[in-house]
Amino acid sequence: QVQLVESGGGLVQPGGSLRLSCAASGSFSRLNVMGWYRQAPGKQRELVAGITSGGGTNYADFVKGRFTISRDNAKNTVHLQMNSLKPEDTAVYYCNAGFSNTWYGAYWGQGTQVTVSS
C-alpha cells in the first residue's frame, strides 16, 4: 500500500508562483511513475505532469514552459514548481503514483487547492 500526502497549495496572484510537494510512504522499494493531476469545478481530472524514476517527464501542453516537475527517489518525493500562474490554473491538484509503465498510477493523494486570483 502507498500513501501520498500533498502540501504547498494556496492562494496566489496571477503571474505568481507556487511549489507543490508530495511525499509517498508505505511498504515499497520504488515507485515507477509519480505525477500531478488537477481538477477544476465542473471539469474532468487531467494530467498536469508526470515523471519516471529514471527522470523521464511528460507535461500537458497547457503547462509547458511554466511548470517543472522533479522528484527525489531516495526520499520518495515529487515536486511541482508552478510559475507564471494563470486564473485558469485554479483547481484541486492531486498527487498520483504507481508501479506500472503508465502515466496514470493507482494511488492518489487527498488533493491540495490552488487558487489563482487577484
Summarize the structure.
With 118 residues, the protein is mainly beta. The protein has no helices and 11 strands.
Describe this structure as you would to a colleague.
It is a single chain. The protein is mainly β and 118 residues long. It has no helices and eleven strands. The chain has strands at residues 2-7, 10-12, 18-26, 33-39, 46-52, 57-59, 67-72, 77-82, 91-98, 107-108, 112-116. Strands 2, 4, 5, 6, 9, 10 and 11 form a seven-stranded mixed beta sheet that branches. Strand 7 (67-72) and strand 8 form a beta hairpin. It is globular. The model has no long low-confidence stretch (mean pLDDT 96).
Radius of gyration, in angstroms, nearest whole number? 13 Å
How many DSSP helices? Answer: 0
Please trace the helix and strand order, writing H or E for each element.
EEEEEEEEEEE
Identify low-pLDDT runs. none
| Separation, N- and C-terminal Cα atoms | 40 Å
> Whole-number average pLDDT?
96
Q: Tell me the helix content.
A: under 10%
Helix and strand content put the structural class at: mainly beta
Number of extended strands = 11
**What fraction of the residues are assigned to beta strands by DSSP?**
over 45%
Give the CA-based shape: globular
Main β sheet profile = 7 strands, mixed
